[in-house]
Write a structure and sequence with these properties.
alpha+beta, 3-stranded antiparallel beta sheet, 5 helices, 36% strand
């Protein structure tokens, strides 16, 4: 299963020009109590979450369902802003909810073309899943973003170096690597290295 939530990538996702999918290679383990990251209060006690690494495991040829905001209770989303908060739950299968949404999103015109189902489609992986690390660093007194392929480098990454960053960015739906890193940095803060799992595939025609 592939889940997407970054609004900058939504146009490429809906047009199915997006062929590269990245996801954080970590998750919180809320059962852990100790001196780790992200303290929070639960039942009057401080619980510190330990972040566990998610290793890449998908194989070439596997079929993956692609979603937008998979865990949302809603099924329909505005294609202009990517939000579902405008929709009333009882009207999620009703095409008459236009007036509810257009007050919130100026680009919404209350037509069926203005919303989409969160189940986007399916892709067939053309390469096995691999892992990258993104971070910012200083080079000759200038800040720059860096992408590092971890583990056994995939054939895809090897074949396109040194243009790897641009190929990655365009496959995700960005104009260039600068726009990609700017958005990912805003979402995940790359001042410290962050690992992401990468899946590459081709859309299956329905």
């Amino acid at each position: 299963m592939i889940n997407n939530q970054i609004k900058k990538e939504l146009p490429a996702l809906l047009s199915k020009k997006k062929t590269v999918f990245i996801s954080p290679a970590w998750k919180k383990n809320s059962s852990y109590i100790g001196d780790e990251l992200a303290p929070s209060v639960k039942n009057g006690s401080i619980v510190r979450y330990k972040y566990l690494t998610i290793q890449p495991s998908a194989k070439k040829g596997e079929i993956e369902e692609v979603f937008w905001n998979k865990d949302s209770e809603y099924k329909l989303f505005c294609k202009h802003c990517g939000n579902a908060k405008h929709f009333r739950k009882k009207l999620q299968t009703d095409k008459t909810f236009g007036d509810i949404l257009k007050r919130e999103c100026p680009n919404y015109k209350a037509t069926p073309e203005d919303y989409f189902n969160k189940n986007i489609g399916k892709v067939k992986l053309t390469r096995k899943e691999f892992q990258i690390q993104l971070f910012e660093e200083y080079h000759q007194n200038k800040k720059r973003f860096t992408v590092e392929v971890l583990g056994t480098i995939s054939q895809w990454a090897r074949s396109i170096r040194p243009s790897f960053k641009e190929k990655l960015a365009k496959g995700l739906g960005y104009k260039n690597s600068e726009e990609f890193f700017k958005e990912i940095n805003k979402q995940f803060d790359l001042s410290k290295p962050k690992k992401f799992n990468v899946k590459i595939g081709e859309w299956i025609k329905c």
